[in-house]
Every structure is written in C-alpha cells, then in structure tokens.
Amino acid sequence: MSAFHVPEISCGHCTSAIEQEVGQVPGVDKVVADVDTKMVKVSGTTSDQAIVAAIAEAGFAVAF
C-alpha cells in the first residue's frame, strides 16, 4: 500500500473526487482518501507516478 499526503483535502467532495479519479487508474485495487489525516492510501500494482498524476487530474497536489 502506498500513502500520499494531500494537504488540500478539506471535505467529502474532495475525498470523492480523488477516490473516483485514482480508482480509474489501471492496477489500482483500492483507494481511500481521508479528510482528517489528509492522506490518500492506495493499494494495487500501479506506479506512484500514475497515482500522483491522477490526484493532480482531480485538482489536488501531493506534498512531498
């Protein structure tokens, strides 16, 4: 499982948008975005770069 810090997550709409976008990436088995921890946890066989790109497509930035 990979975890990504996304400080801009502030509401349920944010989590839904991220989960929907990342969930479409081939190789992603499960994605959970948490508004309290501002973390996105992803399990599957895809690359971190593809996940970061999907989070960006949803309108959010990953903090490194």
Record keyword descriptors for this entry.
64 residues, alpha+beta, three-stranded antiparallel sheet, 27% strand
Topology:
Layout: E1 2-5, H1 12-23, E2 28-34, E3 39-44, H2 48-57
Antiparallel strand pairs: 1-3, 2-3
Question: How would you describe this structure to a colleague?
Answer:
The protein has helices spanning 12-23, 48-57; strands at 2-5, 28-34, 39-44. The longest helix is centred in the first third of the chain and has 12 residues, at 12-23. Strands 1-3-2 form a 3-stranded antiparallel sheet. The chain is 34% helix and 27% strand.
Terminus-to-terminus distance: 17 Å
Indicate the percent of residues in helices: 25-40%
Largest beta-sheet details: 3 strands, antiparallel
Number of helices: 2
- Count all strands and give the number: 3
In quaternary terms, these chains amount to single chain
Strand content is 25-35%
| Arithmetic mean pLDDT | 97
Order of helices and strands: EHEEH
